[in-house]
Design a protein that fits this description.
The chain is mainly α. It has helices at about 1-40, 60-65, 70-100, 105-120, 120-130, 140-145, 160-185, 190-195, 200-215, 215-230, 235-240, 260-270, 275-300; strands spanning about 40-45, 55.
Amino acid sequence: MARSSAIKGKYLFPLLVVLPLLAWYVLFMYYPAGYSIWASLHLWVADNPAKSTWVGLKNYVDLFTIDPRFQKSLANTFIYVLTKTAIVIPVGMVIALLFEHLRRGTKLYIFAVFLPALCSATAVGILFTYLFQPSFGLFNAILKTIGLPTQPFLTDARQAIFCVIATDAWQYVGFTTLIFFTGLMNIPYHFVEAARVDGASPTRTFFSVKLPIMGHTLAFLIVYTVINAFQFFDFVFVMTQSGGGTGGASGGPGYSSSVLSLMVYNEGMLRPNVDKASAVAAIIFVIVLVLTIVQYRILRPKWEY
């Protein structure tokens, strides 16, 4: 009997510790997520949700077939994810390799590169909005100085999304640099020394020794960057113009720079079409989940050292 009480007491304390955290997840994560999926399967009545009609997958079908805003937002989201990842991963790696050869002031340089990542995205977005301003912005002033034609930047439907991507990449690249530099510092030195003794050039040493050893670091950064890019919202909301095609919020000109996360806000908060917003959110979740699984299967190193 005493042993039974001791066993119960052994598991009671961990259960009491975990219970508040579990309750928080259920109330603020699992329940809202489940309710959102349930709402996406109904024709939502905002005034009286109890009267919402079950429509099954109709909201999803309508998004892919008859909603040009969703189709544009989906295309822009993939452009954003691919472009941002293609910029911040190689640039962060190159900067980290340069820092590896510094003899003095390494911490100062790392702090300077990482500093933008510590700043508020809203503040950075407002700053770059002024820098991209067509009439008096700094970037057009530089273009004039070197004899190049000025650009409309955020006021042009073709350029707006790429201006936002450039701003996000500028802030985010410090994070990838820091993670890559940490990975480089954790490479066992004897592997690099053995490659040098065998006569390998710095380039061959990087691709044959350092990069394979940093496989887990590279996989983590690519997966994390893709997830982060799919969820981005701040820069598009702050930097782009309002347009009638977006339902009243940012994403302009028109809805040329609209993305899926912004569409969730537009439909769920401004219109409000909770059913459509929930469907878009569910689509984002499925895409991110599938891409994460695929990336980990492809990028996961097949060996350990």
